[in-house]
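Weekly structure sync, notes
Attendees: PL, DS, HV (note-taker this week)

Item 1: PilZ domain-containing protein
DS walked through the input record. Source organism listed as Allochromatium palmeri. Sequence as pasted into the shared doc:
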Amino acid sequence: MTKDQPIQPSTLDEQNERDRRRYFRIEDRVGLLIVQLDAAAEARLVESLETPSSREGLLNDLHAIRELHLPERRALEYKFPTVATYIKVIESQIEALAQAIGDGENFPNSADTSACLSAQGLALDWPEALALDSRVELRLTLFPDRVHIRSLARVVRCDKADDQPGYRIAVDFVHLREADREAVIRHVYRLQRLQLQAHAEEAFEARYAAKTLPDKPKPKA
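Item 1 (cont.): predicted structure, written out as tokens:
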């Protein structure tokens, strides 16, 4: 599309939806490793993230390709269900291999850090101060699917915590592969959906319990 061509409404809607999804946030427990970088290390990290053969985001790349060809997959499931089932088996085997490769790339393997997560970055409590506007490497593991995210990030906040030792920090993703960003968005959506379902079930149970309580006896005249 050239700059002289008008942008179609559907294109605008899709862009607005993508922008809106990036700002959804969720409280989560993640595995997180933060490494402070100098200029040379930052350049090496950017080069690594731009390498198509990068192994850290292999599983996220596979998921992105699958989402891209979702219409064809649905057509195949409708016309040739047996073939579609066999393809799913092969996909699961490939994903298991990609997961094993990612697990060997020095990512955290336990959900030991509470964070507020979005596709733009995250905020969390951290034991040491980080210089404002400095660049750091993030190695992030999202559970329970063990989604691996590696990113260059910028420190946008670092305040001394008032009620506990350590600091309250916030970092924005500066260099994040698009497949990894989509993986974060899918994770945030999934947790939001689970939380909404849990709240709805709690509300239903509360209403049901209120209806089944015995009526209080009326006082005698």
